[in-house]
Amino acid sequence: MKKTTYHADWQINRINFILSKYPKEFFKGKRILEVGAYNGYIGAYFNALGAEVHCLEGRIENVINIKNDYPNITAEVADLDSPDWNWGHYDIIINFGLYYHLEKFHKEHLQNCINNSDLMFFETVIYDSSESEIYFRNEVGDDQSLTSIGGTPSTSYVENILKEYNMQYKKYTDPFLNNFEHKYDWPDTGFKSFNQFHRRFWIIKK
Fold first, then answer.
1. Radius of gyration of the chain from Cα atoms?
2. Which of 1, 10, 127, 190 stands 20 to 30 A from 52 (CA)?
3. 129-179 pLDDT, tens per residue?
4. DSSP line for 167-202
5. Nearest CA to 6 among 124, 136, 123, 97?
């Protein structure tokens, strides 16, 4: 399998964190959807463990790279900042680093993922606020928002949706996930502050 050059240690940290909770054998035969896949490496890793993997990615050039680098997985162009869902149900959804790049349909996107998976690995940058809200900012880059505006949720924004749908979930602030500037073990202050590298990780299931 082709090695990744995109934040390689950080991508591997998140994979290994999942594998610390679920054994490799768990993924054999599972249908996995990776949303906002960018380079497809994480999905390809689980495909190598025996999963059937499909990737959704917003930019055609990234989808072409996924198909060239990892021909054993499938990929298509999709704008996930939408209330629509056209991909059916999966055993697992991997939703890493996409959510805070959405501009319009945060609640609908998370609802779609909840309704169409049995298990989701979810992580995002988090706006440090005690209120349920979204912080909007301008973005630019081939791994950023498709519209140039991204909305970063607070923890309570995410978890209020999970509670509404009676999901079982656990939030992780484990330093094992940290990599250089990307931090998961930062302390909540509720002071309405934004740091583009302050993230949280959830495991969510029905």
1. 16
2. 10
3. 999 999 999 999 988 999 999 999 999 999 999 999 999 999 999 999 999
4. -EEEEE--GGG-BTTBBS-PPP--EEE--TTBEEEE
5. 97
